[in-house]
Amino acid sequence: MPPVRPKPPEAGPGPGLRDSPGRHDGGSRAAVTGRSGRDRGAGTERTGRDRDRADRDRTAEAGGAGRGARGRAAVASSGSVTGILPVAGDDHDHGERGRVAGAAGGRNRSGGGSSVTHRATDWIIEHWGAKPGRHPYLPVALVVFAVLLALVAWMLGPAQHEDTHLAANTAPAQAPTPSPAAASQVPATAPAPGPQNQQPVAVPPVARVERAATSALFPSGVAAHTIAEANAWAEFRGTPVDVVVTYTDRDSWDAIVNPWMGRVFSSFPGDLVISVPMFPDEGPQKGNLVSCAAGDYNARWRQFGRWLVNQGRGDSFVRLGWEFNGGWFAWRASANPTAYKQCFQNASSSIKETSPEVRIDWTLNAHGPDYNAFSVYPGNQYVDVIGIDSYDQYPPSPTSSEFSEQCNAAEGLCQVINFARQNGKLFSVPEWGVVSQQNTKAGMNGGGDNPVYIQEMYNIFRRNAGILAYEAYFNDDIVGNVRSTLVNPNRHPGSSALYQRLW
Q1: Domain 207-502 falls in which CATH fold?
Q2: Segments making up each domain of the chain, as ranges
Q3: From the candidates 45, 411, 431, 471, which is the catalytic residue?
Q4: Annotation says 357 is catalytic
Q5: Which residues contact 212 (CB under 8 A, 6 or more apart)?
Q6: Alpha carbon separation from 178 to 250, 403, 409, 420, 476 (Å, rounded)
Q7: From 45, 229, 323, 353, active-site residue
Q8: Which of 43, 170, 197, 308 has a CA positioned 20 to 30 A from the CA of residue 15?
Q9: pLDDT one-digit tens code per residue, 231-259
Q10: Annotated region Disordered: where (predicted)?
């Protein structure tokens, strides 16, 4: 996330962390939630990698070895571990990304088949592309030459003159902004118009994915960067943690496609929610939307999909380019709406090629402030879950009527739920929490210790439990961020007591 960005009076990003000045990380702390990256921005910025990467190593050892298939099954009935482990010290590298050796046995999912061309390209990139000074000029030249020969032969073939062989490459129709009246409807999506000489192509319905595993009414969790933090949250509320929201680092492709949380949370029996940028936003590998839209990063995303499967995390929730409707991330949609949509479609399709059971989460920021999120919806075939980061700020909700007003306002939580229903999708709330009025970016635009907000969020979750993929509280105490902590330390006693009673 960018450094503390000026927040418009009407809205703001979730409290995410920022790796370094100028970055905004999704509403959780880089340190707190494994959001080691720059969290989101509800109005608070973090420095990305807030806590020493060292934290994760020690915690990984304390958390135990790989997660077995039995651990995965256990979560369906009992959730996640509940004992408090020692909190990792500052001398461990929590940014290190080792793969967990024992994880392959548990949570394994079969990776999707890739084409020979993709495998060859991926092999070249993995063995040459990432190493400075070594470039596969000859192999690449041979591949390009072979492709050109095949293309010429294809163009000369008679099949190219038949309309029935034309591919449907048109972009999906733009999704309309949801209306409250359509809250319970799931209208059919009309096929996008194609070329005049092309027959309409029937788009098969996209099956709805499963919610996160839980033994409760709805899946619930917390943003955390260690097993100890997840367990402390479970003990605080007296119920297991079903999901943990985490963030990759954003300074290189290796940090993105081989992220640290696979090792740190190898023994966590619940579901991981992995927030990943669309491309590195700093350093020598810094990317951009145009290159992403052109498919330049597809091989990287296939590599990430293979990593998920190898870690036994092939069915993870992946928050791809979260909070794109804010102005603090390099992948913000307002920079190039067309390129943003194509970039998301490319990344989603590429990840699913090698990790077909992954659940892609398209997460916007509540109430903007920078761009109309629904106008750049990538399309149902590229999205499994429609999420929103929604904090008690810009505006806060001191009363039930004010909560209802902001919830139903543009890009509010209620609108997201309606939009998910219209498109036959699950919805998620990966980041939410109260916002302190002291030493935060929001200041008096935050609701402070606000039990009303806690109660109303709980009511929303209960009423829509059937389509709630998961929700996760952002327990943060970083000065300049949301400072939403309910435990360790408890800065909001009224909200904390009510949360404990409800959950």
Answers
A1: TIM Barrel (3.20.20)
A2: 207-502
A3: 431
A4: no
A5: 219, 221, 242, 243, 270, 271, 317, 469, 470
A6: 32, 18, 11, 9, 31
A7: 323
A8: 308
A9: 999 999 999 999 999 999 999 999 999 99
A10: 1-116, 170-201
